[in-house]
Specification:
The protein is built from 16 helices and 2 strands. It has 386 residues and is mostly helical. It is globular, with a radius of gyration of 20 Å. It is a multi-pass membrane protein.
Length: 386
């Protein structure tokens, strides 16, 4: 019996497929990233990360304004528009990699980001909800439990899709990516129905949770923008500019991070799953902190779950661009991090149900468990064969 594809392939994770030392640069323009020294690369990386942070704040603000004024509704305005906006770095890297035929980069870019974006909730719990009850206690609702279930379902299909044949492609569409997109849309429909009410006491809301309804901070932002005289056209222009900045900065992050990993001798697996993944998750962190500080804890959790459910939909986009079945080319580390993402999501779903009241080391018990599991998982990356 011949060894499987996964047994031959080197482990690759996060948003970085290999370090520069593993893939020596060819003749390039003298001003390209390949010619820069480590200090300059670190500066480029930091500037790109800062640009994503600033643009992420503007994306969040203008998305809320546009969603309110255009009456897009919570499902479209929050789950779709904000999910696309905050995941623009991942979209840029995925399209760029798929266009060049390196679908492995696209796979690692998507799957490597889901675990770290879940860990963003740890930061929101520790630094956004200081004092009082933990994040999941304040945000608890059946709607968020349903969103977590959608994430788990989508990631389950991802793992199943990695086992399909590579040549199973029809009209540039692979069944795995198509099923993920369909499942995501079905999830949006169910979430829309849940938002209109559930056959449970308090319409699925837990007692003594955040109080004001989910998304109230969006209305507050829109009113503030109106009081400042911000027109809808201006909000749309700012949104477009911030989106462009995020797209460009995302690509710069990935390419400079590739070179940094080569310079410092870190494996692509470790660097991509930690430093680079954290940098490209800055939009989620900035928007989440804004929501939590405005008392909209449910929206903060919803944005993370919504983004994690959306990211695998990019496999359909990568397939359309490259003409290849993307998921069957996933490496062992990609599947490993997908399983980690499922595990971390389950912990937070359990937290939303049991609603911890105590804070340990400044965070809820569920957040502490997620943090420990993520650290252990990252340590486990270096033990993968290959």
């Amino acid at each position: 019996m011949e060894p499987s594809e996964h047994e031959h392939a080197p482990p690759v994770a996060g948003r970085l497929r290999r370090s520069a030392s593993e893939n020596p640069p060819v003749e390039e323009n003298p001003v390209s990233l390949a010619s820069l020294s480590l200090p300059w690369l670190l500066l480029v990386f930091a500037v790109a990360a800062a640009a994503i942070w600033v643009a992420g704040v503007q994306l969040s603000d203008q998305t809320d304004v546009l969603a309110e004024r255009l009456h897009l509704g919570a499902a479209l305005g929050g789950t779709v528009l904000l999910a696309v906006a905050t995941n623009l770095p991942e979209i840029a890297i995925t399209v760029s990699a798929a266009a060049s035929g390196d679908v492995g980069v696209a796979t690692g870019n998507v799957l490597g980001g889901i675990a770290i974006q879940t860990v963003v909730l740890v930061a929101l719990d520790a630094f956004g909800t200081r004092g009082g009850r933990p994040l999941t206690h304040r945000a608890a609702s059946l709607g968020l439990v349903l969103e977590g279930a959608v994430v788990i379902a989508v990631l389950g299909v991802v793992i199943a899709g990695t086992q399909l044949p590579r040549d199973l492609v029809v009209a540039r569409v692979a069944p795995g990516g198509l099923l993920i997109a369909v499942l995501w849309v079905v999830g949006l429909v169910l979430l829309g129905r849940a938002g209109r009410g559930l056959p449970w006491q308090e319409s699925g809301e837990a007692p003594d949770n955040q109080g004001p309804p989910k998304g109230h901070s969006r209305t507050t932002k829109e009113r503030a923008a109106t009081s400042k005289g911000t027109s809808t056209a201006r909000a749309a222009v700012v949104f477009a500019v911030a989106a462009l900045v995020t797209l460009v900065a995302g690509v710069v992050l990935e390419r400079s991070g590739d070179r940094i990993a080569g310079h410092v001798g870190l494996s692509g697996v470790l660097f991509g799953a930690t430093v680079l993944a954290a940098a490209t998750s800055l939009p989620e962190l900035s928007t989440g902190l804004t929501s939590v500080r405005n008392g909209d804890h449910q929206l903060a959790v919803s944005d993370i779950f919504g983004g994690n459910a959306f990211l695998p939909v990019l496999f359909l986009l990568a397939s359309l661009v490259s003409g290849q079945a993307v998921l069957p080319q996933a490496q062992s580390s990609d599947i490993y991090l997908t399983a980690v993402g499922i595990l971390l999501t389950v912990v937070y779903v359990v937290g939303l149900i049991f609603r911890p009241t105590r804070r340990v080391l400044g965070m809820g018990v569920d957040s502490l468990v997620v943090l420990v599991l993520y650290v252990v998982a990252v340590a486990g990356l270096v033990t993968l064969p290959g």
